[in-house]
């Protein structure tokens, strides 16, 4: 009887696979990461999550403050001192850690999504040019050769969570997995934003000064990869710059550029300063409706210059810790999604801290569920563009969220929470282009992830078209003198930080266990809060497979090994399982920190010819280097049904 039953089960499985071969596709997810061989029937509409195995050695567990996709498909993870306090021998919390200590800042790794393995690698040296070299809270961006340029970082911690920026630069070589440096910065830049120009030069905005904790620099620096030097420009001397513009005609307050500002290239070669950023308490809240267009002139190699013109006013004040992206469906448009309004206090929302949220809310503090669109001049008759505003776009308010551009020209809004460090949102939101929906996108909630990912989370599109979700930093971890990091900590209004007494759902005292937490992340609670306790740092990564990976039929693949692509040239690729109306897209490699991806953007390539047997596709490379600067991109083929191939990594060159 048992043999007959087993035979019947096997027969039914085989019949099922014949009816729907998509159930057996191993390419939808790496086999080493699978939780189950059985695909949830909701995967076709809501996607599927997989847990990434943690390294065997617990000392190699780490979060993901700074992450970047490399041209070889691996993920660079850099944390530096990693937003921690010191827990001394008297069991007292001391604000911050020593960023010049090699053991404190040596927190870097490479993750290979093909086999799900992590490899710890050396971090930049803790002392460089005689000064602290902590990459925590740096800015980073790909150079045209695929190496990653890190800008500034934390020079030192001060009581009261005051920081100052270092003048350090670090370059990660993706081929040799080693670090080097280029010319130092003239000014410290804690929380800077780098933006790549059409010729590969990089403009670096904002950041906190060196030697002057809590002061934002009103300057920019422009890096020339050819000379490996920076040019420094003081914006207070430039007409119409934010620092010379009043926030409103009746106000006596001048504008500024917030830290980690959300700045985007425009189709005509300018840079749009949106006003959004990542201001953090105790910095003054940036409340401005202004936007600006900056033009960079590098014709004189000895002296670069910039000029400003006022951009259109926004319909809402600027936000912090929302996300933004270049719209993949309306070339040149900019989207800003979610964020915090009216406060820089990222603890806003926690009911047990003794803070009165009603006081902050009375001053206008809230978490946004909005989508703001800057319509570029190429899509409107307004010469500097215009802002459009959808107040209730997201399914719920979100801060610390990220927006990942997908090969299908959809956008996945992922991670973050209803507050910056509280009430995590586990369900990504899939934004599908739809001209009849507010903001140009309809939204669909996806299946929930397992782990909370608040402050300092990361999300990156992978070459296999899945999405890595990593990190999360609900509060500051506690580093002990032996190097052990405790994550069962919470901020406290009386004691600064404390190790709380944790309880189970029934109110029984329960000792914290990392092993138990990663199996059952909803099991711990603290008095005065109905939300589950969240450890200070999340060391468990996950990968999300969007619904397009569970479509029926065979997955298309690019078989031609393109390595380089020049602007405007026509090229041909060979594909398996192509269709008559497929698309070819380029997506720039992502580089993520603090709720923003400084790299990603999508170029929808013009299809020139499809062979009769659908196996050969001719297309034209991008022509606009302002929007699509030189560097490495993922090339995807997407068939009629929205089923993407694995990517080929190509280098776009002048």
List the helices and strands and how they pair.
Layout: H1 2-19, H2 43-46, E1 48-51, E2 66-69, E3 75-78, E4 84-87, E5 93-94, H3 102-105, E6 108-112, E7 117-121, E8 127-128, E9 131-132, E10 139-142, E11 148-151, E12 154-158, E13 162-165, E14 169-173, E15 178-180, E16 193-196, E17 202-205, E18 219-224, E19 229-234, E20 263-265, E21 271-273, E22 292-297, E23 305-310, E24 323-326, E25 334-341, H4 357-362, E26 366-375, E27 386-390, E28 402-405, E29 411-414, E30 429-433, E31 441-445, E32 457-461, E33 467-471, E34 477-480, E35 485-486, E36 490-492, E37 496-498, H5 514-519, E38 542-545, E39 557-558, E40 564-566, E41 570-576, E42 583-588, E43 591-593, E44 596-597, E45 602-604, E46 606-610, E47 616-620, E48 631-638, E49 648-653
Parallel strand pairs: 4-34, 40-49
Antiparallel strand pairs: 1-38, 2-3, 2-43, 3-6, 4-5, 6-7, 8-9, 10-11, 11-14, 12-13, 14-15, 16-17, 17-18, 18-19, 20-21, 21-22, 22-23, 24-25, 25-26, 26-27, 28-29, 29-30, 30-31, 32-33, 33-38, 34-35, 36-37, 39-41, 41-47, 42-45, 42-48, 43-44, 46-47, 48-49
Quick description:
Helices cover 6% and strands 33% of the residues. The protein has 654 residues and is mainly beta. A hairpin with a 4-residue loop joins strand 18 and strand 19 (229-234).
Structure description:
- With about 650 residues, this protein is mainly β.
- The chain contains 5 helices and 49 strands.
- A hairpin with a 5-residue loop joins strand 16 and strand 17 (about 200-205).
- The longest helix has 18 residues, at about 1-20.
- The termini are far apart.
- The model is unreliable at about 5-35 (pLDDT under 50).
